Amino acid sequence: MSRVGGASMGGAFWRKARKLARLLGNPAFRRGLRFGVAAAIEHRTILGALPVATVIDVGANTGQFSLLAASLYRNAAIHAVEPLPAAAAVFTRLFADSARVRLHRVAAGAGTANAPLHVSRRHDCSSLLPIAGGQTDFAPGSEAVGTITVPVRPLDELIAPDDLVRPVLLKLDVQGGELQALQGAGRLLAAVDHVYVEVSFLPLYDGQPLAHAVVEHLAGHGFGLAGTNHPTFDRAGRCVQVDLLFSRLPAAATHLHGRPRTEPGLRETALTEADQEAAIAPYPPIAAASSPSPAMASPADCGRT
User: Fold this and answer.
1) Which pLDDT value is given to residue 274?
2) Cα–Cα distance between 45 and 130 in angstroms, integer?
3) 134-147, pLDDT tens digit by residue?
4) What is the DSSP secondary-structure string of 120-140?
5) First-to-last C-alpha distance (Å) of the chain
6) Could you tell me if residue 146 is left (phi over 0), alpha (psi between -120 and 50 degrees) or otherwise beta?
7) 21 phi/psi in degrees, rounded to 5
């Protein structure tokens, strides 16, 4: 996706070209491109040195982060969570031959429900929260094209902490729903060693908790900030989003406590399965790994390069 703000379109083009060249140099990433999936290698530096035996990829989309994790942590088990049927179908095809990857086709939330998923024209911008004007300004073309109803489950219901091999990395990128996903993971967090989460400083979705609420919640569960990565800015130069890495603190550390938030809903047009497939259509697979066209690689993150 194009970076907005101070970066020029020419700069974004060359960033994508450099990323594509690196992807083509890795056989696993090259295979991902055949499915239209560009591994999220922009996270490799901050995560590469972590000792990880289990990865929980919440907001897996078509497998961009899981593809990177499978390369970084070659023996790790991967639990992926993705509610959008069309994206989950691509993920399933990509990892069809991998016994260590399991996909949960639900949305992660604070409780159990069936809820509307607001599907974006740019499918990886889809969210349980209504898409606001701040998002469409930040990432043009990310407006909602309709809704589908998806199952929502707390992570505590999906994944048993006692079944996990540590150290555990929990990654969350769910377009404004990160705090709600964490609120449904109280027991799971006790078995997690590192949390890598996308946070926003400006509201992009209606009712979205911002960065301070996520930081406060994780501090209340014994995590401290260990690093930052991939800040993104708007045209006014304001930092809009950043990826934060948290690691577990010693038990004696002082903690803060987050507060749950209730989010409003919004009615939109229901989508058919054909509509969902069309939402992924702007991100086609490359015909062959030897065709180095930056336009063919799928985006790694909504509104960010």
Assistant:
1) 53
2) 33
3) 999 999 999 999 99
4) ESSGGG-BSSPBPHHHHHHST
5) 5
6) left
7) -60, -40
Q: Which of these CATH numbers, 3.40.50.10280, 3.40.50.150, 3.40.50.300, 3.30.479.10, describes 9-293?
A: 3.40.50.150
**Lateral strand order in the sheet of 113-120:** 107-108, 144-153, 113-120
Question: Domain limits of the chain?
Answer: 9-293
**Among candidates 173, 142, 139, 149, which has minimal Cα distance to 55?**
173
pLDDT at 116 over 80: yes
C-alpha 190/C-alpha 116 separation (Å) is 30
Beta-carbon contacts of residue 266 (< 8 Å; ≥ 6 apart): 116, 118, 130, 206
Mean local confidence (pLDDT), 270-274: 52
Chain centroid, CA 60 distance in Å: 6
